[in-house]
Amino acid sequence: MASVFEYAPAPESRSIVDIAPSYGLFIDGEFVEAADGKVFKTVSPSTEEVLAEIAQAGEADVDRAVQAARKAFEKWSALPGSERAKYLFRIARIIQERSRELAVLETLDNGKPIKETRDADLPLVAAHFFYYAGWADKLDHAGFGANPQPLGVAGQVIPWNFPLLMLAWKIAPALATGNTVVLKPAETTPLSALFFADICRQAGLPKGVVNILPGYGDAGAAVVAHPDVNKVAFTGSTAVGKEIARTIAGTRKKVTLELGGKGANIVFDDAPIDQAVEGIVNGIFFNQGQVCCAGSRLLVQESVEEELLESLKRRLSTLRLGDPLDKNTDIGAINSEEQLTRITSLVEAGEAEGAERWSPACDIPESGYWFAPTLFTNVTQAHRIARDEIFGPVLSVLTFRTPDEAVAKANNTPYGLSAGIWTEKGSRILAVANKLRAGVVWSNTFNKFDPTSPFGGYKESGFGREGGRHGLEAYLDV
Amino acid sequence: MSDKSEQQRLSVFKTYKLYVGGKFPRSESGRVYEVTDSKGNWLANVPLSSRKDARDAVVAARKAFGGWSGATAYNRGQILYRIAEMLEGRREQYVREVADAEGLSKSKAAAQVDAAIDRWVWYAGWTDKIAQVVGGGNPVAGPFFNLSSPEPTGVVAIVAPQESSFLGLVSVLAPVIATGNTAIVVASEKSPLPALSLGEVLATSDLPGGVVNVLSGRTAEIATPLAAHQDVNAIDLAGAGEDLAKELEIAAADNLKRVLRPQSVDHTATPGIDRMTAFLETKTVWHPTGSLGASGSSY
């Protein structure tokens, strides 16, 4: 559909990143093959092109990595905090220097638009390392008493939606506090973690302090269950989170879980509509909606529903879906075929249950995994699309009449990660924010992140907080 | 009055009851079990709570949560201090009950009771300070105002310590309600009387009904449905043995309850803030500041 606003292609060059045909596991400072020789392929979700072949970690590799981390722990935890800080500052600087390369790499492996990796993910990744670098020699002042001690080996399992950012959230506080790390990236996005291994090499980080084990769920489960792992950190689905909680029951392992969400984005009748529309778009279409804190349920006050939906649909019609490496792309590819299938089946359930589906006119590329931005109206609280986490670019619209009703509906979910409030009335913001059972509440904005700010869920969205001073607690024996 | 007439007077026994929703019900099951002192002498027949009693207690705790968590921290502090006042007035009763329950000398039991009373005072002072210690503003790299504040997790099930029937009980209960949670306490199985009597003090301390609910009975029988209950947000396993603790932790995973594992605690030492922070969530609220940016004023 050509329009006067058609943009010429503006692709970012991929020549800045040099992807090797194959990668090993990163254990004790070396890239090594998996013990059983298994490998898997990682593909670019926007083209289905095979990017590289990756060694696939199994139980024996997990054991080896944990041993390496245990050995490294002795020296690493004994270093003065000021020395650990310098390593983290080095890493932060190298990430800044290689930021463009990493942004392109992440876009290739994950499918998200370069606009997001370049302007959101990478700056935040560096910022997290800078933030926690500064804590390493100030732990006495963090509010956990004098001389708080690290836990030991941290086993960390991260998802595919923000591969390098989730790595930074996990590794930066772990190293700052003196722990060593065994990290398993997601099977669909292992590359940036492997590039991070190379950054550790450039930074001269002692061997074994960081170990990276690409692999599938079984490797993640082995990391969690390993008897010599002292701390488990997981970001991913609530179902897996519950399984992890069962696995570590009766042990002394400390745990943080950042799980799913079904965030309510509440728009009151006095909200600035244009700003709210931008916030709604950012809330659910950022990273194709593959965000645990996405504002996937729009709760709009009945009196402005029509006006808001009209503006929203007009805005959605201007979103550009396509090549994630194009700097003008708003909506990239869905991360995997499996995820696309999940989104598709939930959307079908939405239609079958009687909700009304709408998408802007939008060309879908022939290869790769794609899903057009989608809006559902006539949604009730009982619908699956209002209850289940879709983790895709799908917004369910519900309405309310009074603030109390908005709060009741927003809280009507087992999740409790995020929420949004749009109103010009300050007292309403504070009153509603106070009543929402969610770990992060964005008012008149959405999907903002910062390393200084604790992030994490209530209820079934998980335990513990990442970011800020709170993020240290999970890695200290306090 | 002669010694003789004193001996002739029969003392009045107390029927110990549960404390649920601000009332003193018997177990719905109609069951009781015999509680003895450390020498095996009969002390009382106390309610042997059922799973239904546990569920009723959850309903009461949930109902009370909105009001208690919504009360001002100042008000909660006043009420916790009032509990100390009420206990001080009944000090002798608790000294006797603790001495009987734990087989302690009168002076040792008195030390336990005094420490428990002082503990309420300690936590009373915390209600309006914990937010300043564990919350605060975050220096965000952008034009946003952003504040993290602690909030209570919700309904907390507490398996009270088995040995320290009163000081241990207060040590695990006070931090939970100081921060605005509501609680269901499973009293020490062997020595439940001080816990059941505590209900009488709580009922007369301006503490809203349902904020604390006390159940007596078989620890495993009551704790199991609480650990599995979908409307319980957290569980303190202080008084659960190793095997039971593991079982309860597995059950608690079903709705991702916050779990505080059993640990050795010196109840005579000044507590840290861990028992409060274990049952707090952190909520981070963001708002644009409208700061002057490169493009000029946005307000």
Describe this structure in words.
The complex is a heterodimer of chains A (478) and B (299). Chain A is an alpha/beta fold. In chain A, 39% of the residues lie in helices and 15% in strands. Chain A is built from 15 helices and 17 strands. Chain A has helices at residues 59-78, 81-97, 99-110, 114-135, 163-176, 191-203, 217-225, 238-247, 273-285, 305-316, 337-352, 384-387, 403-411, 426-435, 470-473, and strands spanning 22-23, 25-27, 30-32, 39-43, 50-55, 153-157, 180-184, 210-212, 231-235, 254-258, 264-267, 297-301, 356-358, 374-377, 394-400, 418-422, 440-443. Chain A has a seven-stranded mixed sheet, sandwiched between helices. Chain A has a five-stranded parallel sheet with strand order 8-7-6-9-10, sandwiched between helices. In chain A, strands 1-5-4 form a three-stranded mixed sheet, with no helix packed on it. The longest helix of chain A is centred in the first third of the chain and has 22 residues, at 114-135. Chain A is globular and about 65 Å long. The termini of chain A are far apart. The mean pLDDT of chain A is 97. With 299 residues, chain B is an alpha/beta fold. Chain B contains eleven helices and ten strands. In chain B, strands 7-6-5-8-9 form a five-stranded parallel sheet, with helices on both faces. Chain B has a three-stranded antiparallel sheet with strand order 3-4-10. Chain B is globular and about 85 Å long. The termini of chain B are far apart. The model of chain B has no long low-confidence stretch (mean pLDDT 95). Classes of the chains: A alpha/beta (478), B alpha/beta (299). At the A-B interface, helix 8 and strand 17 of A face strand 4, helix 10 and strand 10 of B.
